[in-house]
Amino acid sequence: MSTLTKQTLSHLDWLEAEAIHILREVAGQCANPVLLFSGGKDSICLLRLAEKAFRPGRFPFPLMHIDTGHNYTEVTDFRDKRAAELGERLIVRSVEDSMARGTVVLKHPGESRNKHQSVTLLEAIEEFGFDACIGGARRDEEKARAKERIMSFRDEFGQWDPKNQRPELWNLYNARSHKGENIRAFPISNWTELDVWQYIQREALELPSIYFAHTRPVVRKNGLLQPVTDLTPAKPGDTVEDVLVRFRTVGDITCTAPVESDADTVEKILAETATTTITERGATRMDDQTSEASMEQRKKEGYF
């Protein structure tokens, strides 16, 4: 996109146009791509961008979700409903299937399955022969993601080497790969959380209900709110509180925390997001707190 064109578009229009360009580049350069759709807000934006990129035709790729088996039902129900509304093929592969095959072995029954999604994802890539996975990761979420290219190269083992990535000059992208290699494409990499919510508002996108304020039993631990669920019950000595919360990001129940909030509309969430000083993963993800390099290590092993 030329500098002149960028100057004549609004900020959101430019982000949208660039993301559509990236989606079309993936479709044009890759033989068998797939779009990763979890039912979360970022992948919901990706679906709208794909509609604008390829309608009235069908998407040139299926949708896929790697399910831990411990996802919030509000989100997985929305995932299924949205895919059906679009009439697009949805592939679901579960970490539980990998556990049954013996390719994922938990250290103990209560271990989070989140990091083990890498194994299931790589198995699905091999099963279907995907040469590109389109995801909704953004650079502002976490420092390892800030290192990643828009077209992120993964080797034949599905691994990411941050020191061995392709240059991306202007808006020229190289999504080509050899057989067995894989590209992870991130069309909204340069978007911020605020950009996402502004796009949701502008496009009037429907979201799972847990993104909006609701009362939920939680336990305060290490500066986070741990939801009290069948999977994450309160322990002896814990103080359970009913707190008005919402989720800034959604994922595995065992490692995704809500934040205190009374924002029950997109407009109120936009006002909160504009003033927050903590990234959404920093405020909500228990799995990222094990180490400053935990996300980077997972990505090197094949994570999204």
From TrEMBL:
Q: Which PANTHER family match?
A: SULFATE ADENYLYLTRANSFERASE SUBUNIT 2 (PTHR43196)
Phosphoadenosine phosphosulphate reductase domain sequence ranges = 32-258
Stretches with biased composition (Basic and acidic residues): 295-304
**Which family is this sequence assigned to?**
Belongs to the PAPS reductase family. CysD subfamily.
Q: Where is the secretion signal located? A: none
Gene3D superfamilies, alphabetized: HUPs (3.40.50.620)
Top-tier EC class: transferase
Top-rank taxon of the source lineage equals Bacteria
- InterPro entries tied to this protein: PAPS_reduct_dom (IPR002500), Rossmann-like_a/b/a_fold (IPR014729), SO4_adenylTrfase_ssu (IPR011784), Sulfate_adenylyltrnsfr_sub2 (IPR050128)
Q: What is its EC number?
A: 2.7.7.4
Which GO-annotated molecular functions does the record name?
A: ATP binding; sulfate adenylyltransferase (ATP) activity
Tell me a GO biological process for this protein.
Answer: sulfate assimilation
Could you identify this protein by its name?
Answer: Sulfate adenylyltransferase subunit 2
Identify the Pfam families for this entry: PAPS_reduct
**Keyword terms:** ATP-binding, Nucleotide-binding, Nucleotidyltransferase, Transferase
Segments of this protein annotated with the region Disordered: 281-304
